[in-house]
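Tokens for Xaa-Pro dipeptidyl-peptidase C-terminal domain-containing protein. Go.
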Amino acid sequence: MADFRTIQAGEQTIAVRKDLRVPMRDGVELAVDAYHGPEDKPRPALIAMSAYGKELQALALTMPPQRRPSPMWDGCIEAGDIARVVKEDYVHVIGDMRGSGDSGGVMIGNYNFGGVPQGQDLYDVIEWVAAQPWCDGNVGMIGISYFGSMQVLAAAERPPHLKAIFVSGGHYDFYETTYHGGIMWFMPRAAREGRGGDSGIAHADVKSRMQEVYSAEELKKLVDERLLDPDVAAWPNLVHVLKYPKNREFWFDIVMNHLDGEWYEERNPITLAKNIDIPVYLQIDQGRGWTVDGHIELFDVLKGPKKLDIGSYPPMQSRPWIEEHDKMFRWYEYWLKGIDNGIMDELAVSVFVEGSREVVTAEQWPPKDIEYKSLYLRTRRKLSFEPEAMGVEHAAPDGFYQAPLTVTDKVEILSWSTAPFEQRTEMIGTGAAHIFAEIDQDDTNFILRMWDTAPDGSRQLITTGYLKASHRELDDRTTEGSPYHPHTRAVPVEPGKIEEYVLRLYPFAATFQPGHRIVAELSNDEPLADEHNSLLPPDAFHLPVGRPVTHKIYRDAVHRSRLVLPFTTRKAVEKH
């Protein structure tokens, strides 16, 4: 039974319609709460839907926003600032997806891709909300991350009353969300299990899709095969998940599907985005490379009115999420309230440039013309615009031996540095790292991180690149400075053979000031703590290599290991 009450948030009075039951077309009911001003009148509605639990989202009314590294930061409080939404005279509708929280039904697999399409449920929620007497029929959506992905799935179904969406930090290609360059990332584990600063999914009735599709005998064989990967077999949590799959159903599905293909493509929101024709605002901050990549890819697919806003570092917003609300309300003021505030007169793409702290705008990404130039790895750990002249017999390779983290706490890192820049140097776009390497095992990780290092030694991460060596194959989407790996098969490395590994450097925008240097760091595991990692939740790291590996990095006249970077060639377009 729905409950109607009023509450106080500071000096603000908020009416709450608690535990409304929304009927789906198959008879299942989803649970939502609606928050609005005390006056009895219809308003535009902003809908936030996830599997993280609407009760958790209600903490936005009582908990001041937390930033990392606060231990109170909870990555799942992502539905937005309830009091601010109500103050701006919208109805804030926050609900639980099927199989989670207080909703009925079953969720099978991540984003319920083994069951009823979530876009279908979202369509039904949107149309139900639009028909309520407290809604004026104009509906948008709100929320970051999981909530952002739900917006794209909803818009692809074209519900008639969904007039626009504002997506911040969504996840799209679910393979790239979890396997960066083929290397497993643990952040999705945290969001599903509830570890390391995340409450996780509010499980009500969830099931592993793998367990629904395969028989117990077939699944045991697949699990045994997965445990042959020494990286997986060396990590206690993964062994536990694979041996006891009913404990962590969704994470089990992710771990078991370590190659890209149909399993991920059928659930990729970008695949569905060609159906979207309503206005879409995409916002993402730098420092989370794979999601910047996804937002750009989605922007390029969309055919209707659209904006792309790439914000400043650092990578993790507050929880409860409150950032970007000013931009969001301008967007919805125009599209839901019909107020011409000039937002559509502004250029479509806005990019914050680290270093100069300027904002550049254009109609496309990248917002400036660029020219790819190479910085070559040289002897004596130098990065230079000139390639190494000496042959391999004189320019002996750099090298490092990395023991598994089961027996050491030390992550070995090789680094190369440019000379200090003499003038401001701006780069905007994607990049590539071409690494010629020889290893003594059949696989390893390559993790490259590029830093802007100031004269006083302080530094900021600019971009990263990841590649599991066995995933080194490239496909026909690859262009200069923008490599693509299909990740549809793993090809073991021949020990002792020099191979070229091409890492995709995620999109970035940075100006290197005079006196600053680029420092490129290469390792096969991530440092346990540094200036960047301290800004992330504890589980935001990648699966370490589970075997000892010796790496030799060649950078001579024949093996031209290098960074290929996007140098801008024209001035910024002034923002209106």
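The two ends are 50 Å apart (CA to CA).
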